[in-house]
Amino acid sequence: MEHINTAAAPFDEANMPDLSAADPKTWADIIVSLLDAHKAQEIRVLEVFDQTIVADYFVLCTGTSNTQVKALAGEIEYKMGLANVQHLRMEGYNEGSWIILDYGSVLVHIFQRETRDFYNLEKLWSDAKDIDITALLK
Asked: What pLDDT does residue 18 have?
C-alpha cells in the first residue's frame, strides 16, 4: 500500500484521489480531514496495531447531535466511496449516538458527547499511540 501526502489537499467530489491502494494511515488522514471540514469536534487518531488485531487506527470524533453524527458518517461513507474505498460494515446509524464505520484497518467512531464520555475509548485504549493530527486540521 502506498502513502499519499494529505497535508494540504482539499478533498471534495472534484478531486478525491483513488485511495484503493493507499495505506491505512492515509485513509485515517483523509477521514480526519473530511471530519474536520464538516465541523466534527475533538477528533483524535489512535494507533492501535500494537494493542489489537481489530484495526491499525481508530479515528474518534464527536458530533453535536444525532443529526450531525449521521451526517458525518454519511459524508465519510460517500467521500471514501468516491475514493474507491468501501466500508466493510456500519453499525449504529439508526440510533445516531455512536456510529462505527469499519474500513478493516481503520475504525471510525463518531459519537454524541454523552456516549463518548460514557464509553471513554481513549481511556480504554490508553496504551495506544495518540497520533498528532494538527497539520490536518483547519
From this structure: 87
Query: CA–CA separation, 117 vs 94, rounded Å?
Result: 20
Spatial distance between the Cα atoms of 135 and 138, rounded to a whole number of angstroms: 8
In the chain, the domains with their CATH numbers are 24-131 (3.30.460.10)
Give me the sign of the Cα torsion angle 101, 34, 78, 64.
positive
Cβ of 134: how many Cβ atoms within 10 Å?
Answer: 5
Whole-number Å distance between alpha carbons of 110 and 99: 5
The pLDDT tens digits for 61-106 are: 999 999 999 999 999 999 999 999 999 999 999 999 999 999 999 9
Q: Is pTM beyond 0.70 here? A: yes
